[in-house]
Structure formats: structure tokens, C-alpha cells
């Protein structure tokens, strides 16, 4: 813990003073641009990947970047989604999977998780993705099969999001957009799902028009 304590001290003495104005502004409220749902894996550093400051992402993390379908039973993910969209009115939701995901490896063989009963049940929310891979990816090699599972799991969780009332209402009002990403830990590549073509492409291709518009706006200032 000494290393973490030293990190806090460095933050207080060096980092905080440089961003004091930002933190003073954040102390009065928040207005994040995206609800970012990703895995609890320690190798996923959301701020580093997206190059965002505090206050820009509302982050929910769990094993497997899972979104349980909506029910009347209250849970942490359900409450967080409801608050993010219903109260904060966040305009974007990203579900971000990643390579080397232990949760997805476990989802491929849930029966083996006898000593982790809660994990085994939690990963049941990814069973639809596993079934898809087994149905259409049976002939793939293990690496390609796992990549398909990572992608299909993100797509499945995006479908689960639509069952949450606040999300359904916001989507009907064109007030929120859903995004599916997969992050490659080894290469740093992030691919995004293009729902029009039903393909996965690099983020620079998926958001080419938005990036061009932002660059034009920056250059005109």
C-alpha cells in the first residue's frame, strides 16, 4: 500500500495544483459525455485509452462488461444506468470489451466454475453470445473464436441496454446513442461496431465524419 499512498501524495502535491480549476468546477456538479461500461480487468485504464479528464466519463465496471437485462429487481448496474441516463441525461453509452478477458474465457466453460458460483451465474448474461459463437464459429481456431465472442458479447450487452426503460425512452427521443468497442491490450487498437454494416472497424474509420467535423471546428477557431 505504500506505493499507492505515495501516489496519493504525488497527486495532491503535483497533479491537483495543475488542474485545480477543473476540480473546483467539478465540485459543483458533473456533466459526462458518455456512460462507459467496461470490464473490471486491472489492465483497462479508461482515462488513458480515451485521453479524458475527470468529469468526462461516467464509468461502470464489472467482470465481462455485462449489462443484465432490465428486471424489477434492483442491482448496481441497473441503478447506475438509470441515474446516468435518467438524471444526468448522458448522450452516449459505450460498452467496451477487451482482449484476454478472463470473464469471457470463463463464459466459454461456465460448468468449470464450480468454486465460483456467483461468477458462473453472472456470466449467464453472456450465454447468448456463447451460443452464437458455437453456432456460427464452430470451425474457427481458438483465437478467432474468442475474438468473435468478445464482439458478440458487446453486441449482446448493447441489446440488453435497450431493455432498460430510461435507455429505451432516451433512444426513442434520439437523446442517446449506443456504441460497441473492443480494445486490444497488446496492440492498443480499438475497434468499434458499425451497426449499419454490421462490421467491426477501427475507431478512426467508424467515427471518420465526427472526427472531420471536430477538426474543422478546431481549425475555424
Q: Which structural class matches the secondary elements?
A: alpha/beta
CATH superfamily: Carbonic anhydrase
Number of strands: 6
| Alpha-carbon Rg, integer | 19 Å
Strand order of the largest sheet: 2-1-3-4-5-6
Instruction: Quote the average pLDDT.
Output: 96
The biggest beta sheet reads: 6 strands, mixed
SSE pattern: HHEHEHEHHHHHEEEHH
Q: In percent, how helical is the residue content?
A: 40-55%
Shape: globular
Strand content: 15-25%
List the uncertain runs.
Answer: none
Distance between the termini: 46 Å
CATH architecture: 3-Layer(aba) Sandwich
Which fold name is given in CATH as the topology? Beta-carbonic Anhydrase, Chain A
In CATH's first tier, which class applies?
Answer: Alpha Beta
Please report the number of helical segments. Answer: 11
Query: How many structural domains can be distinguished in the coordinates?
Result: 1
Outline the structure in words:
The chain has 221 residues and is α/β, with parallel strands linked by helices. It has eleven helices and six strands. It has a six-stranded mixed β-sheet. A hairpin with a 4-residue loop joins β5 and β6. The longest helix is centred in the last third of the chain and has 20 residues. 27% of the residues are buried.
Keywords:
221 residues, six-stranded mixed sheet, alpha/beta, 11 helices
Amino acid at each position: 500500500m505504500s506505493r499507492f499512498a505515495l501516489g496519493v501524495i504525488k497527486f495532491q502535491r503535483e497533479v491537483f495544483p495543475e488542474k485545480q480549476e477543473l476540480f473546483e468546477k467539478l465540485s459543483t456538479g458533473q456533466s459526462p459525455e458518455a456512460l462507459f461500461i467496461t470490464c473490471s480487468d486491472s489492465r483497462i485504464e479508461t482515462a488513458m485509452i480515451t485521453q479524458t479528464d475527470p468529469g468526462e466519463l461516467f464509468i461502470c465496471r464489472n467482470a465481462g462488461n455485462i449489462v443484465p437485462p432490465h428486471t424489477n429487481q434492483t442491482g448496481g448496474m441497473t441503478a447506475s444506468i438509470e441515474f446516468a441516463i435518467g438524471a444526468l441525461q448522458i448522450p452516449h453509452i459505450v460498452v467496451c470489451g477487451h482482449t484476454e478477458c478472463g470473464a469471457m474465457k470463463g463464459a466459454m466453460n461456465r460448468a468449470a466454475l464450480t468454486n465460483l458460483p456467483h461468477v458462473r451465474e453472472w456470466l449467464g448474461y453472456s450465454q447468448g453470445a456463447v451460443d452464437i459463437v458455437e453456432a456460427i464459429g464452430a470451425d474457427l481456431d481458438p483465437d478467432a473464436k474468442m475474438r468473435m465472442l468478445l464482439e458478440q458479447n458487446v453486441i449482446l450487452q448493447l441489446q440488453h441496454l435497450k431493455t432498460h426503460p430510461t435507455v429505451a425512452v432516451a433512444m426513442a427521443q434520439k437523446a442517446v446513442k449506443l456504441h460497441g468497442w473492443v480494445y486490444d491490450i497488446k496492440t492498443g487498437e480499438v475497434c468499434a461496431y458499425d451497426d449499419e454494416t454490421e462490421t467491426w472497424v477501427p475507431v478512426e474509420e467508424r467515427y471518420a465524419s465526427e472526427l472531420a467535423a471536430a477538426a474543422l471546428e478546431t481549425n475555424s477557431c
